[in-house]
Amino acid sequence: MISLSQSIQLLKRVALRLNLAAAGWRIYRFTFWGAVAYGVLLLVSRLTGYGAEAFNWWTLAMVPALCALAAIVLQRRPTALDAARAVDSYSGTKDLFLTVALIEKAAGEYQPLVAQSAEIAAPRIQPARVVPFKYEKPLGELALIAVVATLAVAYLPQFDPFGRVEASTQVAKKQQLLEDSKKATEARKAQVKADDTPEGEVSEETKKALEGLKLALNKMRPKEKTENSRELAGQQKNMGEMWRKLANDKLKELFSHTPQEQEFGSVNKEKMEKWTKELQEGSSASLQKELDATVDDLERLMQSTDPVEKSELEQKIRKRLKELNQFAGDKVGSKPLNAALQRAMKQLEMAKMEGMDPEEAVEAMKESLQLSKMELKEIAQSATDMQKLEEALKIMQQAKQLNEQEKLDGEATEGMGDLADYEEFYQELMAQLGLGQGQGEGEGEGEGDGEGEGEGDGDGTGGRGIGRGGNPPEDDSVETDFITQQSKSPVTKGEVLSSFKSKGLSDKGDDKARFRDMMKKGDQGLKEAIDKDQIPPGYHDGIKNYFGKVEKGSAAEPAGAKKRE
Question: What sign results for the dihedral spanned by CA atoms 384, 389, 395, 397?
Fold first, then answer.
């Protein structure tokens, strides 16, 4: 059997080096001519403006990558015969190794001689000398080409004789704006609470607070006045903070004015008032229908081919969005809702722009409208929570008054399901006790009989009450530790900080009229302060009652007041 192990190994190593050398040379040529072509096209683009958006750092980096890939795919791999010829050419063995490569076809009587000669010559031949790698010059040329191409892309000036660059820039900016609007919509969707609570029902957080209040009221005992007061104060503070947070964060504008006070310009006022009233009551049904109708019109717009119908649908959609956007900004005061509707309006305009994909813009608009529906549902939910919290705050005011009379008994309210039952029960109990609905105590003037009992009109915040006339009994014979003393502190004249004198006549007028005018302004300022500071409704009666008493007590002419001429 003929052994050709060393000869075959030599031919394999030479074939590998031939393959690598051929691949490198092909990559060099493809990259060189690819860079030349890229440079010519870049020069044409910079001079004419055509295809300017295609020449950037990404496309420049793609040139060598694509050229290398094409060179490898299109390469013809060297065979064993090519390796044998290379070895024979280098070593001058006169087709010895070529004969080895074709030994199966050689004459049988010569095969042992050929094999013996090849095995003797193979160890003396080095594959690196047969096929040397000469890469310094090609790599230097490619590096120079890369530097020139980089400088050309970075600094070659761009001319725009036909306005192509400006048009492409505008389309790119619009496309970027569309992408930014889509990202903003997705980011806001992730923030909006995914709440499946039906409209008209309170949220889980508010429900827990109301259940806590009912449990606290059921634990009240008539003789535990101090403990009851402490618990009611804690409950009132907690719910007051919840109410104030909702009012400040989401519903400040919605509840700040009545619908008749708001001016809506050319927009349908009746529709706005209806939306406002429903939203204040915790329902967004009409607004949700309006958004659904907008989506339906948008679908018809994309399917229609009639220019007249498309124009009418565009105007209809634009009108709806304008009304909703104005309502969100002027009446609701919700920045997230307003932003979502404004994005929808911009995306509608983008769908008609040249160079933009209408379907992409319309899909983005649908997402913005879906977000608007989520925002409206959240606002309606907050309005429902506010109403329930207001009811709870009023009930706590009633409970406080009953607690002062030691009539707050939790055993009587056990088993009641809704807060309305508590309110009705407390109102009946307060009526029996002659208590008003507010915080203040009745100030009655009664005519008593001989025993000092009589009926009078209470002047508290809740209206009429039952008072007791006459004077309470006193016994002056009882000895007490009271000692009558007078302070011996010296009375000295204080330091005058500033003073000035002027000559002239005093202002004419009635001091009493000016005083009443000041009280009237003070009453107006009181209302503004309540609105500005977002005072929960449960506190309104007590505040107004206090300042009402001040005004009533000051209605009489001040002592010593007189007209000055």
Answer: negative
Q: Which two tokens stand for residue 435?
A: 């208590």
**CB hemisphere CA count around 30 (13 angstroms):** 20
Q: Which residue, 348, 349, 327, is CA-closest to 338?
A: 327
Q: Measured between alpha carbons, how far is 149 from 141 in angstroms, rounded to an integer?
A: 12
Confidence of residue 448 (pLDDT cuts 50, 70, 90): very low
Cα three-residue angle 460-464-467, rounded to 5 degrees? 85
pLDDT at position 555 is 46
Tell me the C-alpha to C-alpha distance, in Å, between residue 38 and each of 32, 41, 146, 160: 10, 5, 11, 19
Can you tell me whether residue 508 is helix, strand or coil? coil
Q: How confident is the model at residue 259 (pLDDT cuts 50, 70, 90)?
A: very low
Tokens representing residue 254 in the block: 């919605």
pTM confidence score: 0.58
What single string gives the DSSP state of each residue in 280-304? HTT--HHHHHHHHHHHHHHHHHHH-
Alpha-carbon dihedral 124, 126, 131, 132, rounded to 10 degrees: -130
Angle subtended by helix axes 285-303 and 358-404, to nearest 10: 180
DSSP character at residue 209: H
CB atoms within 10 A of CB 38: 21
Cα–Cα dist 362/348, whole Å: 7
3-state SS assignment for residue 509: strand
DSSP one-letter code for 426: H
For residue 328, which of 384, 364, 372, 366 has the smallest C-alpha distance? 372
Q: What are phi and psi of 463, to 5 degrees?
A: 105, -135
- Residue by residue, DSSP assigns 58-81 as HHHHHHHHHHHHHHHHTPPPP-HH
Joined together, the tokens standing for residue 19 give 């393959």
Compute CA 353 distance to the chain's CA centroid, rounded to the nearest angstrom. 28
Say what the alpha-carbon torsion angle 465, 470, 472, 473 is, to the nearest 10 degrees: -150
Cα-Cα-Cα-Cα torsion 540, 544, 546, 550, nearest 10 degrees, comes to 170
Q: Mind giving me the DSSP string for 419-441?
A: HHHHHHHHHHHHHHHT--SSSSP
Q: How many CA atoms lie within 13 A of 319 on its CB side?
A: 11
Q: Amino acid letter at 324?
A: L
Alpha-carbon torsion (302, 303, 309, 312), positive or negative: negative
